[in-house]
Amino acid sequence: MVILLVLVLNLLSFGQEILRIDLKKAVDLALTQNREILRIKREILSLEDIYRAERWDRFSPKFDLFVDKDGFTLFGSTLLIDFGNRLARIRSAKIATDIKRELLREFERQVKIRIVELFMDLYLAEKLAEVKREEMAVAYVRFDRERERLREGLSDRVKVAEWESTYRRFRAELMEAQRRYNETLYRIKRILAIDVTKPVEIDLSQILEFTFPEDKVIDPGYIVKRIENNYLVRVRSLEIAYLESRAKEQRRIFYPELYAFVTTFTPFEDFGRSRAEGNLVLRVPLFDGRTSFYREKSFLDLKRSVEVEREDIVERLKETAYTLPYEWEEIVAEYQDAVAFDRWAQENLDLSRSNYELELAFDLGYAMSTKTEAERKVMEAKFRVILFLMRIYNLMGEDPMKAFSKDHPFFTERVEEI
Asked: What is the CATH number of the domain that holds 365?
């Protein structure tokens, strides 16, 4: 029954068209289909409707119908001039929309970084599975041969058990690597809002062809000058403007408003005797028990609190910027170490091939798995560089996909000390 079910699932998958996804297509799909992005866009539409409502509410005419035992009265009014809080309410609604737009832009940048991370995890899991497959194959051959030697009286049960344990360990690690690969593939589908049952083929060429700029150093001053574009700084600046606008909304005392009123009364006894009146009314609030004063002060206090928080964020970002050169040197050193290990693994593999004999076949197998692991380490070091560059661009409030460009403005040429 289980075999039949597997065959049916395989036939269904073969019948589906394979979706091929490279990094650019993945980003495009995420920006148009990701469910969280769609949710934030809907929230922006809601805030834009509130902003439009506040704009229309300022000067749009309003009509009310009153009915009593004598007849009905149509009452109309409109604001002609105001010098107070209505304009501030409109500005508050607009700033709230701008804050949400900043959130959307930041989330889109984070989604791009996450997609690149998932592509990297997919490659590393695939490469790790290749390493474990090679190690498992070698260990199985040793285990099988040791059993044969035991039957011939040339070995003992301890050695057989030892090689079986080694083989089983590599096999378990292979299963783990394969699980991680498939889990990552499902995560990619979910972030792109693709049906998890749809077969996909991931093109990793863009991240695998990335060129490591190891002969460069970072200029932190360039990054510091662009910290004002950072998402956290921009949002805090907008929040300060929002709270300032909300404070202005509370300023009502001595802020006049000029209204136009029109009243039409129609008695039930004689519909032909309608009576209409019009009037202009100047309203000047004089006293409200200092309620508006305390409400304004409350928003101003919150504004000062956010200003302090914004200053702290700027200082923390500067601190991060000035530590980036040291982190970069560490990354370069790790990459050079991985390249040196890969070079040794290649030399060791070449030596094992040249010395190939039946007795040394196991050494060749381990040399092959070591070379594969070395290749994985080189790419892992490269991936850390890509994520590092993406983080810098995001720190400056720019598109993190610029990490794949050839030139980076925050790099300068490395000057070798004599």
From this structure: 1.20.1600.10
